[in-house]
Creatininase family protein (Pseudooceanicola albus), 274 residues
Amino acid sequence: MGDHFYWEEYTAQEFGRLAAEDAIAILPIAATEQHGPHLPVATDSAIARGMLERLARALPEGLRAVVLPVQQVGKSNEHIRSAGTLTLPPEVLIAAWTALGEGVHRAGLRKMVIVNSHGGNNQVMDIVARALREKLDMMVVTTQWNRFGVPEGSVEADELRWGVHAGLVETSLMMAFRPDLVRHDQLRDFPSASARLERDFKHLRLTGKHNMAWIIQDVNADGAVGNASGGSAELGERIVAHQVAGMVELLREIARYTPVPGPSAAVPRTGEPA
């Protein structure tokens, strides 16, 4: 058996070896949603695929991981008023992603990372992770690529804080991964209403301790937030390298960790009696 990286490249008979090697399953979740006038609706999915391709090259010998298919439609109802956005109800996503985790468990794998590239999926993936831990005694870690941060000094603090959707960082990542899909004539600075709220109100925020439910038009009428005009492929490559390195570190820690034993799982390992 070759050391493949993607779930679909294995035969049914080869998953037993993955289980024996305590391989870590990776479930990438993304979105198909508007990203302003300069980036395509595929942005979050393209970033997910690009990151995984770089991760495949960066994995050290002996650290086994296997990647499930990218989930290209997530919870994007905050963008639903913009053409091209696809979204699924949270209860549908919870059922679907939990079922995928159950499939990982049936294949004999007991550790999984759900890695997200769209903020709207965060609450859903946390529910799924807890359900798989409780039902099947799996170790499930949830994360998002941007939680690994950016190289120190590469992005100004205000841009990191406010440029959360199709801003400098995402535009730079797309310039690195899919420059053919970036509409350069539409690049500009898209200011965030969050900055104005912080200036004018003591407690009221779109995100923070006291959250106001929002849709993207509440943040910026053009559907993007941040200084996309400052993006570059060079910056994108630096961010990719930094975040992939962070993911490798996380996978190493997951591989080392021994979860607290729980009750017998409801679904047996492949080859075990029910």
Q: What stands out?
A: The two ends are 27 Å apart (CA to CA). Residues 46 and 160 are 21 Å apart (CA to CA). The chain has a mean pLDDT of 94. The first helix runs from residue 15 to 20.
